[in-house]
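User: I want to check something. If I give you two sequences, will you return the structure for each one separately, not as a complex?

Assistant: Yes, each is folded on its own. Here is the first sequence with its structure:
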Amino acid sequence: MSTILNDKKTRLFLILGGFFIANALVAEFIGVKIFSLEETFGFTPFNWTILGVDGLGFNLTAGVVLWPVVFVMTDIINEYYGQKGVKVLSYLTVGLISYAFVMVFISISLSPNDWWSNISGTNDDPALSITNMNLAFKKIFGQGLWIIVGSMVAFLVGQIVDVFTFHRIKKATGEKKVWLRATGSTLVSQFIDSFVVLFIAFYIGADWDLVRVIAIGVVNYIYKFGMAIILTPVIYLAHFLIDRYLGQEEANKLKIQAAQ
């Protein structure tokens, strides 16, 4: 075991894979919160009308804070460990997320202790009071089945599309233009991800109008598009740090193997 862990390539894969899975798992759980991006930064919320659907702005799930990081990690792992590395981690992530939700739903079904269920607010502040902790626990962690299915299907489809697009661009451009294959593949995969999750969770699962699903998907993709562009320098920084850690020769060998 010590010999395996002493190998830099193995240690790097474990670090990248662990960070990848942790971000995806946390994003699923914090995604239950909807926040206003504009108000978070002190701006008046937008009031867009798209496809006849009005009142649209950047009202996003908290999970979008981490999903861009997941897709950046996808491109980095893709670069050094190839399609197989990304697919193994993607399937493992979906399996672990499924396991986590099963455990959550089991915990929701457990009978609550009376003392815990009636915990009051901090310092007797009525604004902070929770009259039913068990109900709050159910509301926070008990995401709807269609939302869970939608997010996991969208994640898997997005990963497969990202891997495919990444390598097609790399074959066409060679080792140069890291930004094009990394950001380009993310933009394509995030476009699909933005609509798949909404279609499954709300068109199939909640009987929303298709026009509303598409309109909200457009808003979500505008955010993801912007984040993909903003995070492009992070990809170059990650390449620099990994190449320095592995050594340029070893890093190049990994990239060649990953492209095969």
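And separately, the second sequence with its own structure:
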Amino acid sequence: MEKATLEAKARVERGRKVNKGRKEGMVPAVVYGNKIDSVSLWVKEIDMKRLVKKYGESVIVEMNLDDKEKRNVLIQDIQKGPVRGQYVHVDFFQVRMDEKIENEVELVFVGESKAVKELGGILVKNIDKLTVKCLPADLPSHIDVDISMINDFETHITVKDIKISRNIELGIDPETVIALVAPQRSEEELAQLEEKVEADVTKIEGVVKEEPASEGEDKNKK
């Protein structure tokens, strides 16, 4: 597997002074870790976006710092602008390759479900990420979930059904449901559901369903 790499430079700018770097396509960042002094960095926004697009955020990155030293890091957090989605700040966590780490890994749903294609069901994803524990070298960029095994509305995919390396530990009940296919509701069922919701609302304390005024009743009567 191709190694994810990233160039970084030490940063001395703080506060508003980082705005100049941002205008030049740089992103302020920081790298820290257990018993490691934090270091402020600059990384190129275009390099970060290419890295995330290709490998995702759950991958060990070999960071080349000032062309002097290499560090193995994880993307801990990416802050983005609310309007354009530009990268505002990135946190990296430095890892030791001989120590196990815990990290969230994205689930990627692959394949085609017969219950969806032929029975018209709707795929329901109960979980989209799993927390794994492993050595950094064993950390997967994602975990595939093959939904082709769901042929009817009774079949569920659970944690124990997914295929992962023996070197990876999952801190979750193996019977936890990851995905299933539910039948679409008919128009009659949807209508009944709406009626039920309306009826339940009137039972809530303080909610009174307004009745239409009877014929001849003085609506202005106080």
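Because they were folded independently, the notes below concern the second chain alone. The mean pLDDT is 86. The CA atoms of residues 158 and 176 lie 5 Å apart.
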